[in-house]
Amino acid sequence: MKISGLPGRYCFLLFLLVAALPGAPRALAQGTSGSIAATVTDTTGAAIPGAAVTISNPLSGFTRSAMSDGTGSVRFSNLPFGRYHLSASASGFAATTQDASVRTAAVAAVTFQLSISVASTIVNVQAEPDDMVSTEATSSMAVDRELFSKLPSESTSSALSSLVTLSTPGIASDSNGLFHPMGEHADTTFSIDGQPVSDQQSRVFGNQLSTNAIQSINVIDGIAPPEYGDKASLVVQTTTRSGLGLARPTGSLSYNYGSFGTSNGSAALGFGTDKLGDFVTFDGVQSGHYLDTPEFRALHDHGNSENFFNRADWKPTLADSFQINVVLARSWFQQPNQYDQQGVKQDQRAKILSYNLSPSWTHIFSTASLLSVNPYVRQDNFHYYPSRNSLSDQPVTLAQSRRLQNAGLKTDFSYSKGANNIKAGANFYHTFLHEGFSLGVTDHGYAVANPSLAPFDLTAGGTLYHFNGRTDIKQEAVYVQDNVIYKNLTLLLGGRVDNYDGISHRTLLQPRLGTTYNLKATNTVLRLGFGKLMLTPYNENLVTSSSTGVGGLEGGGKATPLKPATRTQYDAGFEQGFGRHLILNAEYFWKYTDRDFDFDAVLNSPLAFPIQWQKSKIDGLGIKLTVPESHGLSLYSVLGHTRARFFGPEVGGILFNDPKLSTQTTPFRIDHDQAFQQTTHMQYQPMKAGPWYGLTWRYESGAVAGNAPFSTSSDGNAPVDLSYLSADQQLQAQLACGNVQATLTNPLASCAGRLLSSTLLKLPLPGTEDDDRNPPRVAPRTLFDMALGWDDVLHHYRPSERLKTNVSITAVNVTNKYALYNFLSTFSGTHFVSPRTMTGSVTFNF
Known about the structure:
The protein is mainly β and 846 residues long. It is 6% helix and 52% strand. The protein is built from 7 helices and 46 strands. The strands form 9 sheets. The protein has a 22-stranded antiparallel barrel.
């Protein structure tokens, strides 16, 4: 298939020309942040210079302090949207506090009037109990850099994905930085300073933003507001770091080294004034355990990545602000081998090159209204290389060169007056896809087991399968929403219209409604939501999947393009504050999707092709418990339960690790389905000038493993056929027939008269196996991570000292738990969780 479109280089040039036009706006939007301007006076209105003003968000852990200038003024910029608690104090005056909300890029003004006091006062940064719950009409979770910079992470190249997984309820982790949000597969939009990025961000699809560039994230896990579409089971609002207001250059140099020869060096620098600012960071990683592996031992798993980020800010006037984000990234990695592939010296590798350019503009008309414009262009270029000798690749040899380029324009107008907070906008996307792919079978037995692949059996005179295609996809969306705040009631009223014009076509009107009611007497917030959403097909390998016929190379049917899906979603939940020391947030969701999506992976490789099922029914529960910092101790726990039922038939894809799923018509549980998962993180610093300690406890009950063998035959007497499993695959699953263990040299051909068991899989008991009600699963796993650090270790914490040296050591999977993420998953392959990994780090701050 070849659908012509505007070449990417012309789109890029056009974008630059538009941005440079004389009539174009001269300032940029901060789509996820705003500012607070505080003025400190005495009771007569006279300015108080040198007053200490502290701002904090007890839910995210954000805190910042500054001194008022000669006019009694102080400004806090680049504040993520949310509610803030402010305190002000000065010598000879009584301290006082106020609350403020940041909802737009407009400056929120706060005035403190301090009365004279003969007693000395201390700034009180403790929030009141009613600051601890959110009255927003859709559920969300905020996490500030103060927490995630100390959170142990097992990922060497997709730390942002790990951060979202570890801090958000209702997310089941998957291999290689993938995750399943609210029962879906990677159905996530990252809003980076307002720029929407809905393409895949795991380490095997693209190069994601470094956490070193991030100030905070706010994860919307409820029904997405009308502003967001495309992929919206989860919206990750990301605010990057800025150099605004840093009169003296401020930054850090960091280096860490750990297990598997993993090393990571990073440098960050921010500087600026109230009008000009720049922040730049560079990160480099190399590791001998770069990807998650199909064996517990890492074989052929070296990789490295480099990531550059720069944010420049310019505020020529009080009404205009300009921002431009630039990201350049590269990654190179080996495809991990199984034991049998290592023996034949398989050497498959991949390289990903990415860039992102995102200028934006904000113009404030008044304290009530503003306009923002954000054009952008980004690209992921993915290359996959086979071994020099194609017969060393087992059981197939693979190659790919894929380019995904996305150019767009996002603009919106905000107006706040009285009880109304109105926002209306439009998004225009243009995506250019070019895909080259080849496949050849190098194991004759694999071709015999999959007869439709006989033409590509290189051992029997076959030839390589080649595909080369391109298309461009145009998308337009308009939306309007109003957050109405009236006394204890908050309403989200709005809707969105999307038009998708690509290989397939669809237009859909999507109402989005939400409400909360605040019972102030008990500090309880009740929440309800309803939404229609249009989901678009995954862009990665979309042309190939829409061109190879039903069931891909195994089907041979008529090609069926993947089409946009329709989802109806309901949410119900509550937040409960218990004084200042505990917050409970719980949300139940029901999602009904017509034409839901997933990926079909080729074996354990990073080559995955979008597929589409007839429909899905998903429901689940997400809970977050938060204990804000008190006396040096802070803690949170996120929990989730998901039931994900999918219905066939299926279209798209290339090869299936589980062939029966390509024609599945009865309902089945997909590998997003997990009965229970939880992450609990505790951090403790007994003395401000002393060391800090961190402990993370992770538990997952086990995702569905649909291609795992039965524990026994259907009648209990006939032997269980294990011929479809290689010796290596049996070893990976630790299969045993009675007390006879499968090994590489002595695999099990079948299991008769005894129970088939596994230490790494949970196989249904005889007579109970059911794809919908009781499918095979990965065995439950409990993992522990630990961290120990000391900030300003050389100077013993001097608040006025700018030069500080921090040291830390982290241990991921402390007990070296032997466990699987997945097994022979048609969507992900087979991967083990990371073995125990120790890392030491030194950071010099200036």
